[in-house]
């Protein structure tokens, strides 16, 4: 569809020349001899762009600009004049014009201004679309659950959205800790400011301080220029510290100081910088036990744990599996060429009987895989992984041992088995095994020691 342009100029020859040039370059161009005529035309037909001279009889360019703003006439307005000065250009911008062009001008100059304006409008439209998409994705209505514990969590999220209070999100890997953090941010008063996420276990200890707080040029060997840290990047918004339990003790005291004082000091810098950041942290580790064993600072734990949200594993809310399966079918079905796909009763029985050691993330991966490998409108048992078709092997792996119904013991057996399989698969390479397990190398070493698997 052609972009519509209105050319307003009392010089007939220039007006016709500009209109013809625009039509030749693919635009739909109309012409008006003064501001009053232009207002009437713009009121009847919306224009994408309006190119308006400043000096005209009846109603001049600035008068048209003001009345167009008052009347709510849309379209990007570009002013032009042979008598312009810097002050005139600034006045036009203040009144709402997008750009200003001095006469005489080359055709390419007008085309370039229009292209820039088109790109700006495209970016504005895309930004609005992305904001709407973010709002949909992280709105509470998009978090699917009928489980009573999850509904209580949603209510707690609503209460903490608009306050700066630190929140600690607890739960196993794959339960949706970052999703909760993003929901808090995007539904709260900081939604228009940055949301910055960092995995504290994925960054080497010697780089983590610079990543969080930034550095100045020359602070260390590779510091070729100044760098802004994540705290400063998140100013006014939210910083999500994932796997906070992996943070080395040397940095825990510096993080505590930032939370207490609201100031950061870049590595190698002399001065402090004020930051306004809401911190949400998350971990799959038992931080209270870490504190008791001296691995995590007690004062930092209390500072982070003003409000805690504990996400239940999927095996404790299996009633949500059908709802989540349907949600992920809708989410991935269209992009994978299978819109409207549904799960067969037999496949749904298998999904609901499985223990989901990887939690919601594993379920989403399973549905996406089934959509890729399956055919037709129905996802049947044949499209599911072998472990599920074997009658819920996930439960067999972590299930009761000699009538012991301890969830804690079941989780330990599950972790032991996964670690054993990962090490077996990698030939004992712990770095590769940690990558497969989606935990840090340090966390793997800790678990090997904890489970006496050295």
From TrEMBL:
Could you tell me which residues carry 4-aspartylphosphate? 53
SUPFAM superfamilies cross-referenced by the UniProt entry = CheY-like, Homeodomain-like, P-loop containing nucleoside triphosphate hydrolases
Q: Does the keyword Kinase belong to this entry?
A: no
Domain Sigma-54 factor interaction intervals: 143-372
**GO terms of molecular function:** ATP binding; sequence-specific DNA binding
Gene Ontology terms describing biological process:
phosphorelay signal transduction system; regulation of DNA-templated transcription
Q: Which UniProt keywords apply?
A: ATP-binding, DNA-binding, Nucleotide-binding, Phosphoprotein, Transcription, Transcription regulation
Q: Which residues form the Response regulatory domain?
A: 4-118
What superkingdom does the record give? Bacteria
**Alphabetical list of InterPro entries matching this protein:** AAA+_ATPase, AAA_lid_NorR, CheY-like_superfamily, Homeodomain-like_sf, HTH_Fis, P-loop_NTPase, Sig_transdc_resp-reg_receiver, Sigma_54_int
Please state what the protein is called: Sigma-54-dependent transcriptional response regulator
